[in-house]
Amino acid sequence: MKTLTILCEANPDTDKEHFIQLYKEAFLPESIKINGVVKIQYSEVNPVQSELFEFTLGKDIFFSITAYFPSSEAVEAMISDERSGELISVFNSLGVKAHWFIGVEETVTRYHF
Fold it and tell me: Cβ contacts of residue 55 below 8 Å, gap of 6+?
């Protein structure tokens, strides 16, 4: 299974709660209709400050969306779908920067010896 993960980063003017509500009510029902999407998972992210590491990317990541696809071709079709381009424009207009990552879902099983 192929995955596409979008990490949503806020700017100081972003209304995070409004964005999350809008995603659940408007974007999610349309996103699941895109050909090739098997399932979508989303979660709110609460960053924790730590002295153990520094980070530059995503200083205010607040929301994560992962879509699952059966093949690389399905991911490519979703990226070229005009609705995907519209989604990026809407995210930007709401003050949200999107970081996109494409990967492969892996399953790891723990065995007891």
Answer: none
113, pLDDT greater than 80: no
Instruction: Determine if residue 36 is left, alpha or beta; phi over 0 gives left, psi from -120 to 50 gives alpha, anything else beta.
Output: left
CA–CA separation, 94 and 96 (whole Å): 6
For the full predicted model, state whether its pTM sits above 0.70. Answer: yes
Burial of 45 (0-12, 13-18, 19+ CB in 10 A): middle
d(CA 19, CA 14): 8
Task: Provide the residue type at 38 as one letter.
Answer: V
